[in-house]
Target: DNA replication protein
Amino acid sequence: MATKAKSDTNEALKQLTYLASALKAPRITEAAGRLADHARDAGWTHEEYLAAVLDREVAARNASGAQLRIRAAGFGSRKTIEEFDWDAQPAVRQQIASLASGGFLTEARNVVLLGPPGTGKTHLATGLGIAAAHHGHRVLFATATEWVTRLTDAHRAGRLPQELARLRRYGLIIVDEVGYLPFEQDAANLFFQLVSSRYEHASLILTSNLPFSGWGGVFGDQAVAAAMIDRVVHHADVLTLKGASYRLRNRGIDTLPSIRTQDTAD
Model:
């Protein structure tokens, strides 16, 4: 009797291996074998056992997909929310934790991180992007200058509408370092089109070392800057980071000339 039971089990595992391969879900075989003895000992129902096996497959598939999305995002470096030094920015910790849950993405809301250089804006933007990838969203990361170059190339090739439509399929676009370099008028107009195309459709995260009042100088046109800020902020969480640059810690330098008298919340 024991020999027959063992033979039946082996045949079932062979069939399971074939079915898992046909479904392109090879991890099911491993999970099924690993959980079988535990399910028998614990008296699981067939439904409970099947749910547990499929849960392992879905979790593994989601993790694998998240890693693919993270690699495709173009992050300069992988910095997670968990790795952030909250001692330097305790005031925004609760807001960031809420944003990391991904709710803002389903509502097509934006996030704006303002603050002096070296206060963690890029780290937090990247961390939120990685969290978004784990929630199943496609993400793209680049500096403001890199985005303008990309849009300029598409415009010159006569493909700007198609490029903007393609980018709308990404749940999150991160624009780092707005304000570090001024834009020519054509570049500013292209950037405005990127913002407009995503307005109330998909989310943006922007980081800037300048208050909103300084964006007119960056984009060379107060009207364009005002219209862009209006669309960005209408559905947005605006977080202001403060303090000295972490890069200057223990160097005897407390402030940088460009930020000494600025209030980023303007």
The first strand starts at residue 110 and ends at 114. The chain is about 55% helix and 10% strand.
